[in-house]
Amino acid sequence: MIRGGVKTNVVPPECVLEIDARTVPELDNRALEECIAALVESEVVKVSDRFVPIHTPEEEPIVAAALAAAGTAAPRAFGGVSNLFHVRDVPGVVFGPGRSEQSHAADEWIEVAQLRRAVELLTTLIARYLT
User: Fold this and answer.
1) Is the residue at 87 inside a domain?
2) Best CA proximity match to 13, nearest among 23, 1, 21, 3
3) Count of domains forming the chain
4) Is residue 45 part of a domain?
5) Which H, E and C letters describe 58-112, residue by residue?
6) What distance, in Å, lies between the first and last C-alpha atoms of the chain?
7) Angle between helices 61-70 and 112-130 (to 10 degrees)
8) What span, in angstroms and rounded, lies between the C-alpha atoms of 8 and 10?
9) Residues 105 and 66 reside in one and the same domain
10) Which pTM value belongs to this model?
């Protein structure tokens, strides 16, 4: 969000830029803050450092179990925040029904078929992980 100026033909006395970013392990919060600070001549104020990127190594058993259950060869990044954030020291995966664009939207929903398939996949994941 950008705020600044009083008229189109007047140089504004200030411009305020607010960025809400989700970082990744390869570019964490501190690195993003440093990148932004290098691009501007003014003060950079960080509002929150609460959410930090999480990465579970592919060699973790939970990742292998999830990949096998889903029938995919490689994990993909989850571009949001999940409860995994609260137990970040425990290896985990984000795995569930629906499509990302449906999550946390007005009138959030999933199809019954998606829910049934998720139950099958989660049952398989749990069985593979525990054996």
Assistant:
1) yes
2) 3
3) 2
4) no
5) CCCHHHHHHHHHHCCCCCCCCCCCCHHHHHCCCCCCCCCCCCHHHCCCCCCCCCH
6) 49
7) 140
8) 6
9) yes
10) 0.66
Q: Give 53-105 pLDDT, tens digit per residue.
A: 888 898 999 999 999 998 888 888 777 777 887 888 899 998 888 877 777 77
CA 114/CA 60 separation, integer angstroms: 26
Q: Give the tens place of pLDDT for each residue, 24-39.
A: 888 888 899 999 999 9
Instruction: Report helix, strand or coil for 115.
Output: helix
Domain that holds residue 29: 2-39
Q: With contact defined as beta carbons under 8 Å apart, do 114 and 98 qualify?
A: yes
The CATH number assigned to the domain holding 84 equals 1.10.150
